[in-house]
Amino acid sequence: MKKFKRWLIGIVVVLVVALIGGQLYLKSAAHVPSPAAATAQTQATKINGVLYFGKASAKLTVVMYPGALVDPGAYSIWANQVAKAGYRVAIVSFPDDLAVLKPNAAAQVVKAGQPYVIGGHSLGGVMASRFAAKHKQGLKGVFFLASYPDAKGKLEGNVPVLSLTASRDGVLNFDAWRKAKQNLPSDTTYQQLPGGNHAGFGSYGKQSGDGRATVTNATQQQWVAKQLTHWLDTLK
């Protein structure tokens, strides 16, 4: 019995150490907002971990799921610009900055019958499409930033979809992206930024494996805001 107890205690200690190590690794690998993004974030109101840009009375709420290990504030620059165009942007936060750990987080932002669009960057876009596929009431559209839906997030019917990519993205699997078009409506709008990269859809510096952008981050932020705003303006 004593040997069993020592063995059990040993297993628990190993698990605790592994858990702590995992948490420390995730924190060290997290992508934090650039100084410019941190400045833009001061325009937001933070409620229950969600960054809100724009007025609560706006005609449409834009729900944003960040990419894996990316701090929500890293998307503040284009979010602030979209809000100035008359929309409310809600950037959702997740445990350990991983949308996969709480894919239905948008439920705390979107109220019953409230018109909304939802999207995300990279892994965030995958999780956002899964939410959209199951919560169609009030859904006006879905957008992807260097992302695509998997089979669980397949979007059917006449839901408007916007897919934005960048030519120098070294993180997005373009083969998988092209294959995933079968999970999108045939009239999906596709736009690509020449010279942009994966990290440029946010503002948090370099990302491992990414291509080197030949346009500035400010340029890519403006492009994202412009593409989103133009698309949002077409929605009814």
Explain what you see.
The chain is α/β, with parallel strands linked by helices and 236 residues long. It has a single domain, classed as 3-Layer(aba) Sandwich (Rossmann fold), CATH 3.40.50.1820. The chain is 34% helix and 17% strand. It contains six helices and eight strands. The protein has helices at 2-29, 35-41, 76-84, 123-134, 174-179, 217-234; strands spanning 45-47, 50-53, 61-65, 88-91, 116-121, 139-145, 161-166, 189-193. An eight-stranded mixed sheet has the order 1-2-4-3-5-6-7-8, with helices on both faces. β1 and β2 (50-53) form a beta hairpin. α3 (76-84) runs parallel beside α6 (217-234). The longest helix has 28 residues, at 2-29. The model is unreliable at 4-28 (pLDDT under 50). GO terms for molecular function: hydrolase activity. Residues 62-221 form the Alpha/beta hydrolase fold-5 domain. Residues 186-212 are annotated as: Disordered. This is Alpha/beta hydrolase fold-5 domain-containing protein. Pfam families: Abhydrolase_5.
